[in-house]
Every structure is written in structure tokens, then in C-alpha cells.
Amino acid sequence: MQQENKVYLSLLYDFYKDFLTERQKKIIELYVNEDLTLGEISKELGISRQGVFDAFRKAKIALKRYEAKLKLADKYYKNRSIIEEVLQKLRRIYERYKDEEIMSIINSIQEWQEDV
């Protein structure tokens, strides 16, 4: 799986993990957060590679199904894009007027982004 897809899978997992089984959660966590291969996960959990593959596949399908219905990741990406546009416009305004209140707003938004 490409790194880009892993990031997306991680985002879906963050939004929808409560809908997965405990085994699916553990497999996704090891795959995404620990960067283990399915073979390594198999050894770690003491289950067959096929069992890991099946649980992983079912978890991905479930996460994508929830996203198709709820669209939380899609909304997240759209909101981040809008926030970036607002920040760019605020930076241009700041460069023009050098208003410290605008810079304070920019800094507040950036701090908020880091927490989200």
C-alpha cells in the first residue's frame, strides 16, 4: 500500500475505529502506526497470515463503507483546504497592512490546526 493510501487509511481509522472489531483495530493499528507488514502482524498476533489478510481486508472495506455514508474524511479535507485559503488571504492582508491583530488571528488558526 502506498504511503498516501496509508495516510488516508489512518484518517479513516481515526474517524471510524469504534465501528471495527477489536481484532480489526489491532491489525490496522499495527499496520498504520507501527508500519508492520501483514506477515509481521501475523507473527505478532500469533494468527495465520491469511487470517490477518482477511481481517485487514474486511476492516478496509468497512472503513470505506462508513466513509461513503458519513463522509467525515471528505469534509475534513475540504475544511483543511478552506482554512488554508483563508490563511493565505490573511497573510496577504497582513503583508499589505502589517496589522498585528491579523497576525494574531493567523497564529491562532495555525495553533488550532496543529491541535486538530
TrEMBL record:
Specify one Pfam family: UPF0122
Q: Please, which domain of life does this record's source organism belong to?
A: Bacteria
InterPro entries referenced in this protein's UniProt entry, alphabetically: RNA_pol_sigma_r3/r4-like, UPF0122, UPF0122_fam_protein, WH-like_DNA-bd_sf
Annotated signal sequence range = none
What role does it play?
A: Might take part in the signal recognition particle (SRP) pathway. This is inferred from the conservation of its genetic proximity to ftsY/ffh. May be a regulatory protein.
Q: Known PANTHER family for this protein? A: UPF0122 PROTEIN CBO2450/CLC_2298, UPF0122 PROTEIN YLXM
HAMAP family with a match to the protein in the record: UPF0122
Protein family per UniProt: Belongs to the UPF0122 family.
The record's NCBIfam families line, in alphabetical order, gives: YlxM (NF045758)
Q: What is this protein called?
A: UPF0122 protein SAMN05216240_2130
The species this protein was found in: Caldicellulosiruptor bescii
